[in-house]
Design goal:
The chain is an alpha+beta fold. It contains 21 helices and 28 strands. It has 5 domains: 71 residues; 157 residues, Jelly Rolls (Sandwich); 204 residues, Glycosyltransferase, CATH 1.50.10; 132 residues, no CATH class; 224 residues, Beta-galactosidase, Chain A, domain 5. 29% of the residues lie in helices and 24% in strands. The strands form 4 sheets. Strands 18, 19, 20, 21, 22, 23, 24, 25, 26, 27 and 28 form an 11-stranded antiparallel sheet that branches. The longest helix has 25 residues. InterPro entries: Chondroitin_lyas, Hepar_II_III_C.
């Protein structure tokens, strides 16, 4: 192809009405043929830099996450010497950031290098909220790698240096500085904490030309450090400003009416329920099953009564998510959900003291200047943010409290509520929804519409030009939910994100239905009519417990979806797990960012009578859109459940590289497991997504690494049949291994509760080895081509006669932090493979319990 033809071809790729859907696929197919450094690559580079920045970001993001092909490098003009830009953390400049590694738009231009000492295959990667330093192994204990950052720092007013980063406890760092042409060593060594830490050391005096961070480790395996930012501090100015801070008066005179002036309880709008429902809810407190749940809410509310919300009132909202906050801001739980529990229990119990305390929470939220968790999101000169999670949750809390407590708020307070809802909440949420197209394709967009619907309903009768705002927000939520929840009732993100998404949208759906005179039953049914299909497929034999998948951090069905579906739909299987979900507190606990936010609307709309819980798992089911297949069989007192995982096309960012993975539960014991996701502030979290961390086959490369699957662009779904006696499933996985394999299928056959046969057939594109990975809470002993483990009076034997070697590792990289064992079966060198692995279970007649 001539140069002019090549340029024309590439230009045509970008001429599309929907670039986010068509550009990446076309571009990747075309550039895969480019020789590195060839003329076509240069043509592409020149064209790329003339594209609108939006298109550049789409391409860069897609190539970084999806493609295994050539990467488009950052423009050369963005690299170079340090730019002399300081980013003040406050308007008084007592602390500044000079290296914002958390902002990839700026971090990609920082003059930084990362090199190996003893670590193998080091790399530096820019994530959306960190710059990550990775290596695949470090055989020698001691110095692993070194980071060098060129600087041009000469600011005598700053006497301290700040370093914010995350690393595991087995790893440490120390610093050296190039000052006025000489090397200055700081002798102190800093060890990781497993979360974000903040290091403050004296700043060397003089002109700092470079900073060196030497990393040492005791951990021999793959590791990642996450850099947030490096900065400077004027410590005397920090102390001086701290002494000038004044605390707010907890009486909030002029905003909260004096108790003697409170009117009878009446709501402003009645978004979720109104004052006429209170008597029925007071009776429900005593109903069997609900009495236990309500006592738990009262216990929580009593605990929250001991908090003085004004003590945590600063320019930013308190949070216990440590990823983006300063060390001095740790150990401060969020206002939003504590306030709702206080407000809910207080108004049902007609407890004036508790109601006043809930109003203090409300005032503290209204008087927080920024509805984000830290100054990092408000840096002058940076557009980075964590997106509108805190704005949404705070808006929702403020709106519901202001609705319930209209009788106790002055007109001035109500006006302040309206202004804050818009300025600090909805305006930011709308910005992010318009800015980030991906939000309209995953659960976050539907979640963020909640505040728009609730806030809009609160405002529409007071602000004359709100117009069609609420209807537009509902329309957006409707479109996103129809994309997110597939036609078989499932999602691709695991039960945690399914329940969390429902937790967010159900209040908005209820409020919209009530405000527009629509049937709540009908509007909930529109989206969750097939939820039972998903819940029964992902369910364990134990009622209320489900399978972990993707970025999941819970194994319990959780949140208000369980009681709401049970109450609105008497035939729903949620009635069969509601009692257990109340008992294990998962209704209240929820998961993720919505932790401890459940059990309120579920109490209002849940059924009056609660049944005894029983198993809901399907004997056999395939979900053709979500990509799951389950077989759950019993034989006498014994049982065996297998969950087999595929995927929809282009799964969300919360999905893992785990297509073809399976999990096994025997007699109620999870034997071969999915690790789920760690808390996101754990520096090991992203490793949980890797293919080798799941029960799959991977290539085993000559350099000792196990590559990841690519995310599928086409549906990858199991096929097969099953009944109470046997199951046979097949999954074509060539789509997710197309860089390394020209064909690959996995077959699972089981005709009893004592044996599973897994057969893997495939052809490597290049002669090499493959590895079969298994993860279990059971410790296995290795013997030739077998691995044998015992748990709860059962002995499991994994037989792989094809294996050339078997390796065993132990770690705690799992959603619940428990110790897990990683078995790896390596093949001999081959090109075409057809390997059979058998898992058998023998049950002892006399049960002996082994703790795992």
């Amino acid at each position: 192809m001539k140069k002019s033809q090549s340029a024309k071809h590439i230009s045509n790729i970008f001429k599309t009405n929907q670039p986010h859907k068509t550009i990446p696929q076309k571009l990747i197919r075309y550039i895969k043929s480019f020789p590195v450094g060839g003329r076509k690559s240069n043509i592409l580079r020149n064209l790329f830099y003339h594209l609108p920045i939006t298109i550049q970001n789409i391409i860069l993001g897609y190539l970084r996450v999806i493609s295994r092909g050539p990467k488009v490098p950052a423009p050369v003009s963005e690299k170079g010497p340090w730019t002399h830009t300081l980013f003040p953390l406050t308007s008084t400049w007592e602390e500044v950031i000079f290296a914002p590694f958390h902002d990839p738009t700026i971090a990609t231009g920082l003059p930084v290098s990362f090199s190996s000492i003893n670590a193998q295959r080091c790399s530096l990667q820019h994530f959306w909220c960190w710059t990550n330093l990775l290596w695949e192994s470090c055989p020698s204990v001691g110095d692993a790698a070194s980071l060098r950052l060129e600087t041009d720092l000469s600011y005598p007013q700053y006497d301290k240096m700040l370093f914010c980063l995350s690393m595991i406890p087995e790893t440490s760092i120390r610093f050296e500085f190039e000052v006025d042409g000489k090397i200055y060593k700081h002798d102190e060594v800093f060890w990781g904490t497993g979360s974000r830490l903040e290091i403050c050391i004296p700043a060397p005096k003089g002109h700092i030309c470079a900073i060196y961070m030497i990393i040492s480790t005791k951990y021999k395996f793959e590791q990642m450090l996450s850099l947030s930012w490096f900065g400077l501090q004027n410590s005397s100015l920090v102390k001086q400003l701290q002494t000038s801070i004044q605390k707010y008066d907890s009486s909030w005179t002029g905003l909260i009416k004096p108790l003697d002036n409170w009117e009878d309880i009446h709501f402003q709008v009645g978004l979720l329920f109104n004052e006429t429902d209170l008597e029925k809810l007071r009776e429900k407190r005593l109903y069997p099953g609900w009495s236990d749940h309500y006592r738990y809410l009262e216990e929580k509310a009593t605990i929250y009564m001991n908090r003085h919300p004004e003590a945590d009132l600063t320019a930013f909202l308190p949070t216990d998510d440590r990823r983006y906050i300063r060390e001095s801001e740790n150990d401060r739980t969020p206002y939003h959900f504590e306030a709702l529990v206080l407000g809910f229990v207080g108004i049902i119990n007609d407890d004036k003291q508790m109601m006043q305390h809930a109003l203090r929470y409300l005032m503290s939220m209204l008087h927080t200047e920024n509805w984000v968790q830290s100054a990092e999101q408000k840096l002058t000169g940076s557009t980075w943010s964590t997106r509108c999670f805190m704005e949404e949750m705070t808006t929702t809390s403020v709106v519901l409290l202001a609705d319930w407590y209209a009788f106790a708020l002055t007109d001035r307070a109500k006006d302040l509520v309206r202004q804050c809802i818009w300025d600090k909440g909805l305006a930011i949420i709308d910005r992010d929804m318009m800015k980030h197209d991906y939000m309209h394709r995953i659960n976050q967009g539907a979640w963020f519409c909640r505040a728009g619907i609730l806030g809009g309903l609160y405002l529409e009768n007071a602000w004359p030009h709100m117009g069609r705002y609420v209807n537009a927000k509902f329309g957006t939520m409707n479109k996103i939910l129809k994309r997110y929840i597939m036609r078989d009732g499932g999602v691709d993100e695991g039960i945690g994100y399914f329940c969390m998404t429902a937790q967010a949208v159900i209040p908005a759906l209820v409020a919209y239905a009530r405000s527009r005179g629509k049937s709540t039953h009908r509007i909930i049914n529109r989206y969750f009519k097939k939820a039972d299909n998903y819940l029964s497929t992902l369910s364990s034999f134990e009622p209320g417990k489900g399978s972990v998948d993707g970025d999941c951090r819970t194994e319990n069905f959780c949140g208000d979806i369980v009681p709401v579906l049970a109450g609105l739909f008497p035939g729903s299987i949620c009635n069969d797990i509601l009692h257990q979900c109340i008992q294990n507190r998962s209704i209240y606990n929820v998961t993720g960012s919505l932790i401890n936010s459940g059990g309120l609307i579920g109490f209002v709309y849940g059924p009056d009578k609660i049944k005894v819980s029983k198993p809901i798992v399907s004997t056999f089911n395939i979900m053709p859109k979500s990509g799951f297949a389950v077989s759950a069989r019993k034989s006498g007192t014994h049982s065996l459940r297998i969950l087999f995982s595929g995927s929809k096309p282009n799964p969300s960012s919360h999905a893992h590289y785990d297509k073809g993975a399976f999990t096994v539960e025997a007699d109620g014991t999870d034997v071969f497991v999915d690790r789920g996701m760690l808390q996101y502030d754990d520096p090991r979290a992203l490793l949980a997504k890797c293919s080798r961390m799941h029960n799959v086959i991977t290539p085993y490369l000559p350099n000792g690494s196990y590559p990841d699957q690519n995310l599928p662009e086409k549906r990858v779904c199991p096929k097969g049949s099953g009944n109470e006696q046997q199951v046979e499933l097949t999954l074509d996985l060539a789509e997710v291994w197309k860089e390394y394999m020209s064909s690959y299928q996995r077959h699972i056959i089981s005709d009893s509760v004592e044996k599973i046969i897994i057969t893997d057939h495939g052809t490597l594109k290049k002669r090499g080895r493959v590895a079969f990975h298994l993860h279990s809470g059971v410790k296995f002993d290795l013997d030739a081509y077998k691995a044998v483990g015992t748990v709860n009076s059962m002995t499991f034997e994994v037989t792989a006669k094809w294996a050339d070697e078997i390796l065993h590792f132990e770690d705690s990289l799992s959603f619940d932090g428990r110790a897990l064992h990683h078995l790896v079966f390596h093949s001999k060198e081959l090109e075409t493979f057809s390997i059979e692995t058998t898992i058998s279970v023998k049950r002892d007649s006399q049960p002996t319990i082994q703790m795992i």
